Amino acid sequence: MALIITDDCINCDVCEPECPNGAISQGDEIYIIDPTKCTECVGHYDEPQCQQVCPVDCIPLDPENVESEDELMEKYERLQAEG
Question: Domain named 4Fe-4S ferredoxin-type: which ranges (predicted)?
Fold first, then answer.
C-alpha cells in the first residue's frame, strides 16, 4: 500500500528528504506522495522513513492504493531499474 499525507500536514519539510524513492514533493498546500513511486520504503528500510520523522503522524496507509509486500518489492525493483 502506498502512503498518503493528510491535511494535518504542517509543511515542516522533514519527510521529503527522507524518501529514498523521491515520492514526496510539495503540493499546492501540503506535501504529497506519488503512489507510483511509494514503496513504503520496501527494498530500502524496514519501516517507512517519512512516518518515522513526521512530528504530527499525518502519513497513514492510503486505502486507495492497496499493494502487497510482493507488489511493493516489484515496484522497488522497477524504480531501481529505471534509475
Answer: 1-29, 31-64
- Structural domain includes residue 11: no
Which domain CATH number covers 42? 3.30.70.20
Structural element, H or E, at residue 75? helix 69-82
Which among 64, 12, 68 is positioned nearest to 40, based on CA atoms? 68
pLDDT digit string (tens) for 10-56? Answer: 999 999 999 999 999 999 999 999 999 999 999 999 999 999 999 99
Range of the domain at 78: 16-82
| Whole-number Å distance between alpha carbons of 75 and 66 | 13
Q: Is the pTM of this model over 0.85?
A: yes
pLDDT at 1: 80
